[in-house]
Amino acid sequence: MSSVTHDLFRRFRGNPETADAAPAAESGERLRRRSSGLAEFTRAIDEEQDLRILDLGSTSPTNIAYLTGLGHKVYNEDVLKEAQEPSLLVPAENGSPVPDADRFLGDNLVYAPATFDAILCWDTPDYLHEALVKPMVNRIHRILKPKGILLAFFHTRDAGPDAPYYRYHIVGEDALDLQPGARFRLQRVFNNRHIENLFRDFASIKFFLARDNVREVLVVR
C-alpha cells in the first residue's frame, strides 16, 4: 500500500556517511559501491529545490536523510514486498497462480499524474513477476512529470540466477551501501534492447555499465 515516509511539513536531516571508506565484504554486512548513474541522478536533483522523489525500494532512513538533506520530499513504496501479497494471485491460463496487475495497481503507486520529479527504481524490474513489470513501468510513466528522471539498475547475464537481492542506501553523491535484504529471486535478465523497449514511451535513456554485472540506466520522461 502507498506510504508517505516524509510529511510535507517536516524535514528529516541526516549526516550521510562519507563515500571513501568501504566496509569488508562479509556476509550480512553492507558493501560499498560507486554508481555513475547515481552521480548523474544526484546532480540533476541537486540543481532544484523541493522536488518530490519516490523510492521504490525498502524504506531506508539513510535515503530519507540524504534526499531531504538536499531539500526534497521523499515518498516510499516497497514494490517487491507488496507484490508478494497472496490476495493478488489469480489463476493463469495454465492454472498456475500469477499476480493480477489491476489489483496490484489498485493498491500501489496510486498517485495523480505527474506527481513526481524523480524516481529511484533500483533493480525492482529484475525481481518483479513478469506480469507486473510493464504495468508498473506504465504507471511510473504516468506519475512522473515530463522531463522527470528515473534511475534503475539491471543485472547482466553474468550475474547468474542466484544473484543476491540488496537494499540500496545512498551514502554520497555517487556512493551506495548495499545491504543484503529479503531473498527475492532474480526473475530474468534484460538486455539493452529489452530495456529500451521497456522504456519506449520515455523521452531518452542513458546506459552506464558497471563492473559488478550491473547495468545502470538513467531515463528521462
Map the helices and strands.
Blueprint lengths: L30 E4 L1 H11 L5 E4 L5 H9 L3 E4 L2 H4 L6 E3 L5 E3 L1 H7 L8 E7 L1 H4 L2 H14 E12 L10 E7 L2 E6 L11 H7 L5 E6 L4 E7 L1
Parallel strand pairs: 2-3, 2-6, 6-7
Antiparallel strand pairs: 1-9, 4-5, 7-11, 8-9, 10-11
Question: Can you tell me about this structure?
Answer:
It contains 7 helices and 11 strands. The longest helix has 14 residues, at 130-143. It has a single domain (31-220), classed as Vaccinia Virus protein VP39 (Rossmann fold). The strands form 3 sheets. The chain has a 6-stranded mixed β-sheet. Strands 1-9-8 form a 3-stranded antiparallel β-sheet. Helix 2 (61-69) links the parallel strand 2 and strand 3. It has helices at 36-46, 61-69, 79-82, 101-107, 124-127, 130-143, 192-198; strands at 31-34, 52-55, 73-76, 89-91, 97-99, 116-122, 144-155, 166-172, 175-180, 204-209, 214-220. The chain is α/β, with parallel strands linked by helices and 221 residues long. The chain starts with 30 loop residues before the first strand and ends with a strand.
Largest sheet: 6 strands, mixed
- The share of residues in extended strands comes to 25-35%
| Overall mean pLDDT | 87
**Structure annotation, total helices:** 7
Task: Kindly identify the CATH topology.
Answer: Rossmann fold
- Let me know the number of strands: 11
Low-confidence stretches: 1-27
CATH superfamily: Vaccinia Virus protein VP39
Distance linking N and C termini: 24 Å
Examine the secondary-structure arrangement and name the CATH architecture.
3-Layer(aba) Sandwich
Radius of gyration: 17 Å
Globally, the shape reads globular
Task: List the strand order in the largest sheet.
Answer: 3-2-6-7-11-10
The CATH first-level class comes to Alpha Beta
**What structural class results from the helix and strand content?**
alpha/beta
Number of separate structural domains: 1
Helical content, roughly?
A: 25-40%
